[in-house]
Design a protein that fits this description.
This protein is 32% helix and 14% strand. By secondary structure, it is α/β, with parallel strands linked by helices. It has a single domain (41-363), classed as TIM Barrel, CATH 3.20.20. The strands form 6 sheets. Strands 1, 2, 3, 7, 11 and 14 form a 6-stranded parallel beta sheet that branches. A two-stranded parallel ribbon has the order 4-5. Helix 4 packs parallel to helix 5 (208-217). The termini are far apart.
Length: 367
């Protein structure tokens, strides 16, 4: 075969190889896209309606849903002040979109200061920190009093999360006094007036003896887990209460009240589900946007309260069962960016105030 013929054969073979590789690459992309789509439509829970959760493993009472693609840089919603001034839950500088969120951190991990606070500062967000007074400064991975002073100086809300993070349901009255009243006194010694109590493991808020003790020392208590705090306490699944009073007329302890403010605690392992960061972001979107049907015309009737724990750079910490409450820094950054770019107003939990006359909550201006 002459050189010209050989060159023609070589060209044909090369074209065939390119076509084969291209076909394989296309199949690979298609397979990858289908795999991603299967993640988008996986069951991750928390659909319409709130739960009557009592367990301690994070986001509870999950239901099947279809989840949307990952968030990516939507248009920014301008910070337009509401002109509606009717009602206690209407206040100046609320976004016209009526979207509000409260960000909480539990336990006092040093990682919250190292990793999370710079992200909060980037967007001008403030948060409520529930700290275990007996653990402050006892190990490098817990915050010390200087760290807490830095948080307070920067406008963060410092609240009580017991002395040792014990399971309150298993304690004697004497031990309960130590955990609940002792924590109040412990913070007072360091010049912090903690007015809100956070139940460890989200347990204890359904026990009258515990609730009564919390009520003796604090203005409010925060528990979980519901994706929304309804400010009139009406509308929780399988619950018929008509306001936020602590006890119903028949003397029964209510599901949501001033000593049982409902929140969504972010554990990525819950009810035998092992959420990836991508799936956890879907849950985050669902919780944040579930308020839409309750809030309008500057009137705030429902607020998602998002509770974080350890913040980590390591995906290993995120997936290990012993680190089930960890959130990766990348995921936390993505979530805060979403709130900022979608015009959410970030409030402190101490801006939530109880009206004992009408037995409802309302939002006050920042303290």
């Amino acid at each position: 075969m002459n050189a010209q013929g050989l060159g023609g054969v070589t060209l044909i073979v090369a074209l065939a190889i390119i076509l084969i590789i291209g076909s394989s690459f296309s199949l690979s992309i298609s397979s990858s896209e289908n795999k991603d789509q299967s993640v988008y439509t996986r069951t991750v829970g928390l659909v319409d309606g709130s739960s009557n959760a009592t367990a301690s493993d994070g986001i509870h009472n999950q239901h099947s849903i279809s989840i949307s693609p990952l968030y990516s840089s939507p248009k920014f919603i301008s910070n337009t002040a509401s002109k509606n001034t009717e009602g206690k839950n209407t206040f100046d500088n609320i976004l016209a979109s009526n979207k509000v969120v409260m960000i909480n951190f539990d336990d006092g991990y040093k990682s919250q200061l190292i990793y999370a606070k710079p992200i909060l500062d980037r967007y001008g967000f403030k948060a409520s920190f529930f700290l275990i007074c007996g653990r402050v400064g006892t190990h490098p991975y817990w915050m010390n009093w200087q760290d807490i002073a830095e948080l307070k100086k920067d406008g963060m809300d410092i609240e009580s999360h017991t002395m040792t993070h014990a399971n309150l349901n298993r304690l004697s009255i004497k031990a309960l006094n130590y955990e609940i009243a002792g924590s109040k006194r412990c913070f007072a010694k360091h010049d912090y007036n903690t007015t809100i109590f956070g139940y460890p493991f989200n347990l204890g808020s359904d026990k009258p003896a515990i609730v009564n003790l919390v009520a003796k020392y604090y203005n409010m208590g925060r528990s979980g887990t519901d994706r929304l705090m309804l400010l009139n306490c009406k509308g929780y699944v399988k619950d018929t209460q008509t306001d936020c009073r602590t006890y119903s007329v028949n003397g029964k302890l209510t599901h949501a009240n001033r000593y049982d403010v409902r929140s969504a605690s972010f554990y990525h392992i819950s009810n035998k589900h092992n959420f990836t960061p991508q799936e956890m972001f879907r849950v985050f979107l669902q919780i944040d946007n579930s308020q839409n049907r309750y809030n309008s015309n500057g009137k705030i009737n429902a607020i998602p309260i998002l509770v974080y724990h350890n913040i980590t750079n390591s995906i290993r910490d995120y997936t290990m069962p012993t680190h089930a409450s960890s959130t990766t820094l990348d995921l936390f950054t993505q979530e805060m960016k979403y709130l900022h770019e979608n015009g959410f107003k970030i409030l402190l939990l101490n801006q939530l105030t109880y009206d004992p006359i009408n037995n409802v909550f309302y939002v006050k201006s920042a303290t």
